[in-house]
Write a structure and sequence with these properties.
By secondary structure, the protein is of the alpha/beta class. The protein contains 25 helices and 17 strands. The protein has a 7-stranded mixed sheet, with helices on both faces. The protein has a 3-stranded antiparallel sheet with strand order 5-4-6. The protein has a 3-stranded mixed sheet with strand order 8-15-10. Its main location: membrane.
Length: 746
């Protein structure tokens, strides 16, 4: 309320007299006053959106009550929904993939399937890339082997309990002792893994403490409680014993596999995470035959019970999408699926806990980037309180019934490509949110911290991530109108608070970037720099300082976060410009993977030079204001100068600034001339299988035809025809010998 009243007072006492009062003021001064008012109004709108979301977050955390463990286990005892965990991975190191797969495999959820979606090119010439690919391919088997011993023990014990003859509804002393021994064994096994786990950094430490040791401690407490019952000559019901044994079996029973879409010509190879997920989602529920040709492998759909099927992809009720640098706590799936299964949430398409940053960051960049991530966790939780939640793509459970409604089939590329998640922008989660809400689906945010994701450790990798985040909001903005109209058509009560929060989420990067750049670079008159402007911003910064303290940081980090945002201005500006370029040209942007390396990532020279330019502009503004006795303007410019200079030194560094600019200059000089790609043709004799399949001698980049779920196939002209017989058209057999032919004729 303070910010809003200050804005109204500023308009009435400062801007109004500047614009409306007749006098000698020229047109430039009037336009300057109007422009300044629009600028501070948009910035105040963003601060108000943060404050409103923050209030929603506080309400949700105060009213949240955890569902008791026994109720969760009872809810899934007889009819547990099925769940697939999809982990898209592109050239990740083995350690990153291992942590994510282990956190997914140890979910306390029955009938779990984990699929590592390897997106590495299968035929790379780089030895390092081949090494990463081989490690990713071998990882599912390694994790399965690690969990094999406890899995066999607990599944066998569960089967024995289920088929045992019992004369009472209560567990006897022998059965209780066996249950205690199994829980103690599971706790000891997890504790042993925690002791032997190689910890290289704070992410490994987090996994050991919050997954392995936390789960071990939880199971140990259950064992102690059961032993306490035994000491007091008490026991438990047989149904509760079955639930407890199912819990042990579900922790260690998981199917882990991998899938590589780029091995198959019949699947999309567009370089983005959305199409990696879409390719696998399009195969769910299908039985397929892997057909080899000299041009590459293809997938042919077949009947569900066809014995020739080499790949069967089961359809599941839910899908958890989990980035390869993320970790979910053991109860993540159990609690969120329980929420989705409630009758009042039958129209919830996505449930998630917006991810937090791993604590204990080793670098200042990672610590400040993590602070902004934790602030965004608060914002997302608060937006959900007003029905304005967005899907955060690092981790979320998707209801397949909702995702299937987003299906589109596109044959504009000469083959059928199925999409569920929009890949028009690199922020596919944000655009898919509005696609779902326009169809009446909701986004649920569970008000706990159950998911964590890595923050960039250096300025170069931070630039890659934040430029990707800043790109796409403007392109998605028109869909907000469709969301608003669809609510009216369904007769739902519409909220302007929800609309404002969604608008701010999509467009605030654009107007905040432009506004802060103008404040730093343009010498506004002292009369416009009123104390009311400070009053507009004060509640925002005070609330942020309190939220940082609540999230485990210092209140004074609010100054560092402000400097962090100033340094990131050119990065955000580039993302906005790329969005405008996409709107004009219609071309897609390739998904830029955030580097996850131990060495420093070189930052683009432009992103290093521009913050220093802002330092120069702030110094010039301070000096010119001081020489003309405009002390308020000089103080503002001086504060910005100190904050910006401190942020550059701590985030980039003087030495790294020089090195990155020099390396960028050298890279431009050494850039090789582009070579024209030579079109290779297939040899009709040597490549006869591929020629018969593709119908030409052009070597395809991808398959020009693909059989879709409707049983039809698209040809080169975009036409449709009936599904071919795979055995007749796409499988080849050796010719029989002459003697065999004579026998057949006779």
């Amino acid at each position: 309320m303070t910010s809003l009243l200050a804005l109204i007072a500023f308009a009435a006492t400062v801007v109004g007299p500047e614009v409306l009062t007749p006098g000698p003021a020229n047109l430039r001064e009037r336009l300057e006053a109007v422009g300044y008012f629009l600028l501070v109004s948009l910035l105040t709108l963003s601060s108000l959106a943060y404050l409103v979301a923050r209030q929603g977050y506080l309400r949700r955390t105060r009213s949240h009550r955890r569902v008791p463990r026994a109720e969760l286990e009872e809810a899934i005892e007889n009819d547990a929904p099925s769940l697939t965990v999809l982990v898209p991975s592109y050239r990740e190191d083995q350690r990153t993939n291992l942590l994510t797969l282990m956190s997914a495999a140890l979910q306390e959820f029955p009938a779990l399937r984990v699929v590592l979606l390897i997106d590495d090119p299968p035929n790379s010439d780089d030895p390092e890339h081949r090494k990463l690919l081989d490690a990713a391919r071998s990882l599912p088997a390694s994790v399965s082997e690690l969990l094999e011993e406890p899995r066999i023990r607990f599944t066998r014990a569960l089967d024995e309990v289920l088929i045992a003859d019992r004369t009472s509804d209560l567990v006897d002393e022998h059965g209780l002792n066996r249950l205690i021994e199994d829980y103690e064994y599971a706790a000891d096994w997890l504790g042993e893994q925690a002791r032997d786990w190689p910890c290289a950094d704070h992410v490994d430490d987090f996994f050991v403490e919050h997954v392995l040791r936390a789960l071990a401690a939880d199971l140990s407490i259950v064992a102690s409680a059961l032993r306490g019952a035994l000491v007091n000559r008490a026991t438990i019901r047989w149904t509760r014993c079955v639930q407890l044994r199912r819990r042990l079996a579900s922790i260690f029973t998981v199917e882990i596999t991998s899938f590589e879409r780029k091995r198959f010509l019949s699947l999309s190879d567009e370089p983005n995470k959305a199409m990696n997920l879409n390719s696998y989602l399009s195969l769910m529920g299908a039985s397929l035959i892997e057909q080899r040709t000299s041009a590459g492998d293809i997938l042919i759909r077949c009947e569900p019970q066809d014995p020739a099927a080499t790949l069967v992809v089961p359809m599941t009720d839910y899908v958890l999408t989990l980035d390869a640098d993320s970790i979910v706590l053991p109860e993540y799936c159990l609690r969120l699926v329980h929420i989705l299964e409630r009758p009042e949430n039958s129209r919830a398409g996505i449930a998630q806990t917006p991810y937090s940053a791993f604590p204990g960051a080793a670098t200042r960049v990672e610590r400040l980037a993590g602070a902004t991530t934790d602030l965004q966790h608060i914002v997302h939780q608060g937006m959900a309180d007003h029905g304005a939640g967005y899907w955060v793509g690092a981790n979320a459970i998707l209801r397949m019934r909702a995702i299937l409604e987003l299906r589109t089939d596109d044959d504009s590329e000469g083959r059928m490509v199925t999409r569920f998640l929009s890949d028009r922008t690199v922020i596919e989660d944000t655009e898919s949110t509005l696609d779902l809400t326009s169809r009446g689906w909701q986004i649920l945010n569970y008000p706990e911290r159950l998911a964590y994701s890595a923050s960039p450790p250096d300025f170069g990798s931070l630039c890659v991530q934040r430029r990707r985040w800043a790109n796409g909001g403007l392109m998605i903005l028109p869909k907000l109108r469709g969301h608003w109209r669809s609510q009216k058509q369904r007769g739902e009560k519409r909220s302007f608070i929800e609309l404002g929060l969604r608008l701010n989420y999509l467009a605030s990067i654009t107007w905040s970037t432009i506004g802060l750049m103008l404040l730093l670079a343009y010498p506004y008159r002292s009369r416009l720099l009123s104390v009311l402007v400070v009053m507009m911003a004060a509640p925002y910064f005070l609330a942020m300082a309190s939220d940082l303290k609540r999230s485990g940081y210092k209140r004074t980090d609010v100054i560092r976060v402000y400097g962090f945002n100033l340094v990131m201005l050119p990065v955000n500006a580039m993302g906005v410009l790329q969005s405008l370029g996409q709107i004009i040209t219609g071309h897609k942007m390739a998904f830029a993977r955030t580097p996850k390396v131990r060495d420093r990532t070189v930052a683009p020279a432009l992103f290093v030079i521009f913050p220093w330019v802002l330092v120069g502009l702030a110094f010039w503004a301070m000096l010119s204001a001081a020489t003309t006795s405009r002390w308020s303007q000089a103080i503002v410019a001086g504060v910005n100068l100190l904050v910006l200079l401190g942020a550059i030194i701590s985030l980039i560094g003087i030495r790294n600034s020089v090195a990155d600019v020099w390396l960028g200059f050298v890279a431009q000089l050494r850039r090789p001339a582009p070579r024209l790609a030579q079109r290779r043709e297939l040899d009709p004799i040597a490549d006869w299988e591929a020629v018969l399949y593709h119908g030409s001698t052009d070597r395809p980049r991808s398959s020009p035809r693909r059989i879709d779920s409707s049983g039809t196939v698209s040809d080169d002209s975009g036409g449709r025809r009936d599904k071919p017989d795979p055995e007749r058209e796409l499988e080849f057999f050796p010719l029989p010998e002459q003697n065999d032919l004579q026998t057949q004729e006779s």
